[in-house]
Amino acid sequence: MYILGIETSCDETSAAVIDTSFNVYSNVVASQVEIHSQYGGVVPEIASRNHILKIYPVVKEAISKSGLSLSDIGVIAVTTRPGLMGSLLVGVTFANGLAFATGKKIIGVNHIEGHLAAIRLSGDKLVPPFIGMVVSGGHTNIYEVKRWGEYSQVGTTLDDAAGEAFDKVARVLGFGYPGGPEIEKHARKGDENAVKFPVVMPDRADVSFSGLKTFVIDYIRKNPVNNETDRCNLAASFQLAVARTLFDKALYASRLTGIERILLSGGVAFNSYIRKYFSDSCAGHGLEIFFPDKQYCTDNAAMIASASVRRVTENSFDDLFSLSASPYGEL
Ligand code: KG4
Ligand code: ZN
After folding, report:
1. ω before 44 within 30° of 0 (cis)?
2. At 244, which helix (H) or strand (E)?
3. Which atom of ligand 1 is least distant from the CA of 266?
4. Which end of the chain is more exposed for a tag (fewer CB within 10 A), N or C?
């Protein structure tokens, strides 16, 4: 069975074709980063207008690159929640229309479950139960994944997501948008021990990345950044604080549940420094760590199709006319 995944929850228009054994035939991602970077962040109205322009060519390209044809596709899996309402509506409406016109089955997917299911595209080597951390621009949630489809939230951010903190600190340091890759790049030239930022809310399941961001902004106010060395040192010190804070949550969740396998996913899991920090720290604490392939960490449609596989195998599809978008939606 071939699945066409569609993702438009934020500022990436993406379509992918996979099968129920998690083989990926295509995964096309049209990023709007260049458009939004001039505003320093995603402008929802502009995002939805660009999804409208991109959705048809992106889906067409995904099918063509897969080497299959539309008639080979059995199921359409589309992100329905959570995300920007205007952006989600483009994907959901397109998927509904395509399913109606072709008689294909449809499944609405929670974007956060998509980030967790991204790991299944790397050979399905991580089997529940495990601790699933979704760390992105929109979310910082920690789940006990009891089985695929059964998630219990252990902790969350009380305010900003970790990726959002990367983006905001990057802006204060004068870097471009999105801030995560910029901070990672500059941090390579900096000293991570230059400034010791604290682990905010240590030894708790929840976290406050706005708190960490405020520490950094206060520090910069008192110690103005004068040169490139200062900027790189602050980037490195902040990145280390994020890594320490996230690992503190992983350790807490592991102790709470007795589960020793950790998954780190979402856009922030793209960060090589954080991946290494987690690998080293997990090894030091007898924990096993898993990351999706980097291409499946940031928003993409292959992970959405991946999340739908459990529903396909259970023969559990959605009613075409009841499927709608929602900005909310915890797991
Ligand atoms: O998962 P994603 O593509 O979208 C959401 O669901 O939010 O994550 C985007 C977030 C942005 O905040 C971006 O700054 C962050 O992931 N990000 C990174 C890196 N690449 C992307 N954060 C840290 N280091 C990176 N290399
Ligand atoms: Zn995402």
Report:
1. no
2. helix 228-257
3. 1
4. N
**pLDDT category, 123, cuts 50, 70, 90?**
confident
Is the pTM here over 0.90, yes or no? yes
What domain range is 292 assigned to?
126-296
Q: Rounded to an integer, what distance in angstroms lies between the CA atom of residue 43 and that of residue 103?
A: 35
Name which residue sits closest to atom 18 of ligand 1, judged by CA: 180
* pLDDT recorded at residue 317: 98
Distance 181 CA to ligand 1 centre (A): 8
- The yes-or-no verdict on residue 124 having pLDDT over 80 is no
Ligand 1 centroid to Cα of residue 140, in Å, is 11
The domain that holds 136 is classified in CATH as 3.30.420.40
Distance 137 CA to ligand 1 centre (A): 5
Residue nearest to atom 19 of ligand 1 (CA): 180
Q: What is the pLDDT of residues 189-204, one digit of tens each?
A: 999 999 999 998 999 9
Give residues (CB < 6 A) around ligand 1.
Answer: 10, 136-138, 163-164, 166-167, 178-181, 184, 266-268, 270-271, 298-299
Ligand 1 atom nearest the C-alpha of 9 is 6
C-alpha separations of 246 from 69, 94, 184 in Å: 43, 37, 16
Distance of CA 183 to the CA centre of its chain: 17
Q: Percentage of residues in the chain with pLDDT exceeding 70? A: 100
- Note whether 62 and 149 are same-domain residues: no
Question: Same domain, yes or no, for 191 and 154?
Answer: yes
Residue nearest to atom 8 of ligand 1 (CA): 267
Looking at the CA of 139, which ligand is closest?
A: 1
For 76-106, give one letter per residue: b (16+ CB within 10 A) or e: bbbbbbbbbebbbbbbbbbbbebbeeeebbb
- The Å distance, Cα 137 to ligand 2 centre, comes to 7
Question: Is there a single domain that holds both residue 256 and residue 133?
Answer: yes
pLDDT at 297: 98
Report pLDDT for 322.
87
Nearest ligand to the CA of 170 is 1
Q: Are residues 102 and 207 in the same domain?
A: no
Residue 304: strand pairing partners = none
309 band by pLDDT with thresholds 50, 70 and 90:
very high
Arithmetic mean of pLDDT, 265-292: 98
**Inside any domain, residue 329:** no
